[in-house]
């Protein structure tokens, strides 16, 4: 098949970690990676078998880079392939944020010579011109931006949150079409139509866990995925994203799946939005857990406070107690009259105690 596009020295991470030649063929279209020495094709996929393709900034790198993450049909970690078929692997490659130096058209003409052209933009445009079922998805401010800017590139927005799946550390990206956990094998992509519901667990002072219940489009039993140790500073942005897409409400899951296939009888966008807006008004699970934790702490502080019925809520009362224990003096009541605290606390019993033992 004749080539439409190729780029040399592309750094692939999945399914192999090596530099290969990225090629896109003309006609029906095929994306493949070729060994630059042996000229053998290492792996590839027909363009019409690509379910999702994402272009994401690589976190925590001094130099700005982008990962292109290709999710094939039945390769998202949620929807299993038909019986007997192997699970297709995702493909991930990285490009630097700079002018393309080794990108060519099928006839050998160098591409990306326009002023301000970048490798990321060129590759994204070529993919969009050849994809049949989808388009390249990038992070958007209106979807999610982390509360913590990119530490390694001062002042730059970050579109990820760090999380753990078991012992595996990775990054969650909240996108217009779903949520990706990457970048190590295996990638997991939760398309919005596969999400049954999302909830919060293990809410602590600084971190919380995110539980995603996802169901395949064959309506199998939902799978539970837990992502732990997410920083509390990103709770607000994550919660807004979840409510924006109605992901906390399992009753909306069927509507999302029906919309994916344009099934008759599915909720309209207006109905879904109205339901999601109503959910926004309700107290989220995390907010409720935080409030209950604060209430419990307040109760513990009140139980611990040994003060009397005065104004003090516990703060600054220790010095007054020390004065009383030292025999130092009287406390003034609200009416300004001197009161004997011991007598008030013990009542008539205080009268039976010898004065030298007080």
From TrEMBL:
One GO term in the molecular function aspect is:
histone binding
UniProt-listed Gene3D superfamilies:
2.30.29.120, Pleckstrin-homology domain (PH domain)/Phosphotyrosine-binding domain (PTB)
SUPFAM superfamilies in UniProt: PH domain-like
Q: Which domain of life is it from?
A: Eukaryota
Q: Name one Pfam family in it.
A: Rttp106-like_middle
Which family does the record claim for this protein?
Belongs to the RTT106 family.
Would you tell me the protein name for this molecule?
Histone chaperone RTT106/FACT complex subunit SPT16-like middle domain-containing protein
Specify the species: Aspergillus tanneri
Provide the taxonomic classification.
Eukaryota, Fungi, Dikarya, Ascomycota, Pezizomycotina
